[in-house]
Amino acid sequence: MNLKELQNDWINAFSQPMMIAGPCSAESESQMLETARRIKETNANVPIFRAGIWKPRTKPNGFEGVGVIGLNWLKKVKEEYGFKTATEVANAHHVFAALEADVDILWIGARSTVNPFTVQEIAMALRGTEKTILVKNPVNPDLALWIGALERLLGQGIKNLGVIHRGFSTYQKTKYRNNPNWQIALDFKSQFPNIPMLIDPSHICGNRIGLADITQEALNVGYQGAIIETHANPDEAWSDAAQQITPEILAELIGNLKMRNTDLAGFEGDMGRHRTLISDIDFQLIELLSQRMKISEKIGRLKKENDIAIFQPERWKVITEYAIQKAVETGMSKEFIEKVFKAIHEESIEVQNNIMINR
């Protein structure tokens, strides 16, 4: 069996969007129970309660989770409020402890997904389990690593699988803590439409602003749920305080979400016409880009013949300023236009570099 053959019937046990909520970190029994109680009292559609028991931190000497004792608090949440429970595992020890505590859903974090040795260790510890295992995307934008992690789990007979899109690290400063890089997640979804995908807006945003928008964007493109960090007193949280929300705000967020219909029945004709027009425009864009790169080749030869450096900062400044101006005039996103022109400029430099190198 391969990934594309998995049925993943486990998702059918939950209404959609399937919501997972709870604190970033388990801090105390009272904190866990109060958060669970208030989520329950809001009547929000949250069937699964999450909490970090072990917390991998970037630097040492910080709070790294309460450890195994927190699993007892998760069990109490399940017993008193009827939630299914979920937590992150990062090694075999975590797996054995979580399974012994009968945690319902385990997820592999972004820092673990990036390391095939770690994923293999976890997969072997989980061998044959019928628990649902979710895999967060790796911290770096590498689709193959994400897929590889699932293949390692499947190789150990684990068939109840899903993924969590939590964004990707970037050296560039953006409005996100972790850049969504939607295309990578959508490439995964395109290849494996049978594997449920959840959004993690808390880690994408890194703050409370934009959680609802990111979650709705994900539902708009067919995601089946979300995992949202929720705390009884977010400002006093021991980890990631800025990105956690109260149970009451969570309930309001969920109440405003809208699932999108994936069935095109009834308007295939209109959709087909629009897609035909898009395909035609896409073809024209490719033709124009091809012509532009041929001109870049000519410029590259001139630069080579006259020993002129490829990168000309003043020229790049003129291009970006003009692009931003046109974006404003046409009502398009400046950020989008900048990304497009940066990609075109990088390819142009590559074309000219090849000419410089091939003497």
Automatic annotation (TrEMBL):
**Protein's UniProt name:** chorismate mutase
UniProt-recorded Gene Ontology molecular function terms? chorismate mutase activity; transferase activity
Q: Some GO term, biological process aspect, for this entry: which one?
A: chorismate metabolic process
In terms of Pfam families, this protein maps to: CM_2, DAHP_synth_1
Question: From which organism does this entry originate?
Answer: Chryseobacterium taichungense
Q: Which InterPro entries match?
A: Aldolase_TIM (IPR013785), Chorismate_II_sf (IPR036263), Class-I_DAHP_synthase (IPR052899), CM_dom_sf (IPR036979), CM_II_prokaryot (IPR002701), DAHP1/KDSA (IPR006218)
Outline the extent of the Chorismate mutase domain: 265-356
PANTHER family linked:
PHOSPHO-2-DEHYDRO-3-DEOXYHEPTONATE ALDOLASE, PROTEIN AROA(G)
Keywords from the UniProt entry: Transferase
Instruction: Report the EC number(s), separated by commas if there are several.
Output: 5.4.99.5
Q: What class of enzyme is it?
A: isomerase
